[in-house]
Structures are given as C-alpha cells and as structure tokens.
Write a structure and sequence with these properties.
Layout: E1 4-8, H1 14-22, E2 33-37, E3 43-47, E4 66-70, H2 79-95, E5 100-104, H3 130-135, H4 142-153, E6 157-161, H5 166-176, E7 181-184, H6 187-196, E8 205-209, H7 215-225, E9 231-241, E10 244-249, E11 264-272, H8 276-286, E12 292-300, H9 304-310, E13 317-321, H10 330-333, E14 340-344, H11 346-357, E15 370-373
Helix pairs in contact: 1-11, 2-4, 4-5, 6-7
C-alpha cells in the first residue's frame, strides 16, 4: 500500500495514527496534511507532501495516490463539524489529483436516519406501516444526504464497521458508490476473543440475539465459533413506548429460555445508547439462572443514562470496541469500568483494509486486537494488553 496516504480530519487522533501504523505508513499523518482553521472559524485542510518547490506539481501532488480518510467521533467537535471536515479533506484530495478517495468511518455518521417519511425514501426488508412512516415524519432522510454529500465531495469508497442498518444502508451506499461500500462485520474478531480469553466457559456457551436486528449477526457468530455445544437463543423486542420495551424469547429460537440454566450467555448487539433493551433482555435471561451474562457490543455510546442502567448486577461483564475512541477514557465509564473491557481493533480494521485495497494480500497476522481492561475488573491480571 505504498501509494496510499492515510490522513485524519483532526489533529492528534490516536485511532488514525494506529491505522496508519498498521498499514505500514512511515510518516505521521499530520506531516501529510495541515488541518487549520481560519480566524473566521472556517476549516481549510492542505495536503503538504512532496517538494513544495516543484512548481510543475502544483495541483497534481496527489496523482497516483489513494487517500484514505479515517474519521471517528471526537470529544472536541460534534459530528456535524466532523462531517464537514470530511467533505473538505475529500475535495482537497480530489482537486489535487488523488486517484481514489476512501473514507473509513467505523461508526458511520447519520446512518440511524436510514429512511424517511415516504415510501420512496429508503428500502427495507420489512413492509413499512403507518407507525414507521410517522416515526420519521418531518425529518430528513439524513443517511442519503450524507451519502450524497460524500460522493459530491469526491469520495469513491466507504468502509464502516458493524452498521446498525445493514440492508438499508448497504443498498443506499452500494448504489451511491458503485458497489464500493464495505461494512466490516466483526464475527471473526468476537469468535477469536470468546475462544481465546477467560471471559466465558466455551463448553457451556450460549450466544443470544436481543432482537430481530441482531439475529443474523448472532447466528454468524455461533457458526464462526464452530463448537457444536454452543447454543443460540433468539429474543424478540416489542417497543411499547419511548422508554418501555418488552422482551421475550422468539417462538422459533433454537434454544428455549430454560436451556440457559448454568450456562454462560453472551448477548451480542451492534450498538447501545440508553441500554434499556439490553437491560430488559438480561433481566429476562437472569430469571433462567445462567452462570454468567456478558454483553458484547460494537459501538458504545457512553451516556450517563446508559452507564447507570448497564451497571445493574444482572450484567456480569461488558465487552465493547474503540470504534468510538472516547470509550478508552475510563473517567467517562465511571463505576461501570469495574465490569467493562474495551477491544482496541485498529489492527483488525487494517487487516481487512489490506484484503480489500491490496489484491492478493493475506492481511496482517493475528492477534488482531488488544484487550484494555481496568484494574477494577475482577479478571484483571496486573497488566494491560493481555492479548
């Protein structure tokens, strides 16, 4: 990947630096692009690689290069600001000769608004009813607008991780970017972690999907683990109000609720905000007397409400990733850190980027993650990065 430039959209982003390192980029990304604001607060990026005295290269210094913009959430800026920065960095790359501009956004911005208030605004696998249309009444189809603007800015390819709306977003982005949209699903990553760590007893393991949206991913995880004794419990959710959900076992679940007694249950989901669905799911499971309940989630939005709810003793441990980098700040986790583990997955992401961006590559050797665990966690072994 010698002709790929990895850059970020704000300075001192460790996640960007890690991706660049794993992709074998020798230069610090901040030595390749200047990220400055004018006095009127407007953002103006400038690519600064190459010999600035070579005037024949003016406006063409990025010819032959692929630019990879790595975009994550920031505690210093909101997502609206970050999105605008993405557009300007992409346009700077395109207007200075870049052959291709790719965006890696692990937690894809604006993807929650994956449809609008009319039938032509978004494709779904289910038949939309009046309640679904009313949910989006008066709102924009934000996912499409963001995709429109990325394409207009010059982005050719988008990578994300475990998107919350796999069908609707995949359909939208595949169309916008001519098939060059990749939703990296961490099935292999989670299977590796569950089998190689001491977080669960693999001989009594049950994987649980808390709602229909998680059914497919949970089934893939069971298959990837590949141990016949691993059980699969499917739950269904009925939302009865903004803060009221009802959880019960799916009628077609391979396992019954009573089958989890004495076993280790791992509840898997793509994201958590308030934590109400997960808490209710774990409460229902706890009534069946499992030995242990672990919540495994890719994107963790650390809110005061969520931390308070998930600190409930019905959940023994929480495993998440650093797709939202601020999760590594343990002050934000508060008391929840005593049962939280963060998998740093920049190496796993880089491994998949190699496979997609460099034909014939075998990627990076395992392990593809580093386990970050607080000394407050009972499983802490006196060191960080145990994997």
């Amino acid at each position: 990947m010698d002709k790929t430039l990895v850059v970020g959209n704000y300075a001192d982003n460790v996640f960007v630096a890690d991706i660049a390192h794993h992709l074998k980029q020798k230069q610090n990304y901040q030595d390749l692009i200047a990220l400055k604001n004018f006095h009127n607060s407007e953002f103006c990026p400038r690519f600064i690689l190459g010999d600035r005295n070579d005037r024949e290269k003016v406006g063409r210094r990025l010819e032959g290069y692929q630019v990879l913009i790595v975009s994550t959430s920031s505690t210093a800026m909101n997502r609206n600001e970050m999105a605008m920065r993405n557009f300007l960095v992409a346009r700077a790359a395109r207007e200075n000769g870049a052959e291709r501009v790719s965006l890696l956004e692990p937690d894809l911005f604006y993807s929650a608004q994956d449809r609008g208030p009319r039938p032509e605004y978004g494709k779904t696998l289910f038949n939309r009813d009046s309640r679904d249309y009313e949910k989006f009444d008066g709102q924009p189809f934000s996912a499409k607008l963001y995709a429109d603007l990325l394409r207009e800015a010059g982005v050719n390819q988008v990578f994300t991780v475990h998107n919350h709306s796999p069908f609707s977003l995949r359909t939208l982005y595949q169309d916008h970017f001519d098939g060059m949209f990749v939703d990296l699903r961490p099935v292999d990553l989670y299977a590796d972690y569950l089998l190689s760590s001491d977080i669960v007893n693999r001989d009594s393991l049950v994987i649980c999907a808390p709602d229909k949206g998680a059914h497919e991913f949970a089934a893939q995880l069971v298959e990837k683990i590949g141990i016949p004794s691993v059980g699969y419990l499917r739950m269904c959710k009925e939302r009865r109000g903004e803060r009221d959900v009802h959880i019960e076992p799916d009628a077609e679940s391979p396992l019954k609720l009573e089958d989890v007694e004495g076993r280790d249950v791992v509840v898997v989901d793509d994201m958590v905000r308030t934590g109400r669905t997960i808490l209710e799911t774990c409460r229902v499971i706890r009534e069946a007397r499992p030995r242990r309940i672990v919540f495994l989630v890719t994107h963790f939005y650390s809110s005061r409400e969520g931390r308070g709810l998930l600190n409930d003793p019905v959940i023994d441990e929480i495993v998440t990733t650093n797709t939202i980098p601020s999760i590594l700040n343990r002050d934000e986790q508060g008391r929840l850190r005593h049962k939280m583990v963060v998998l740093q997955i920049s190496r796993w992401i880089a491994h998949n980027l190699f496979l997609h961006m460099k034909p014939g590559s075998t990627g990076l050797e395992t392990p593809h993650f580093v386990e970050d665990i607080s000394s407050k966690n009972p499983r802490w072994k006196g060191r960080y990065g145990v994997h």
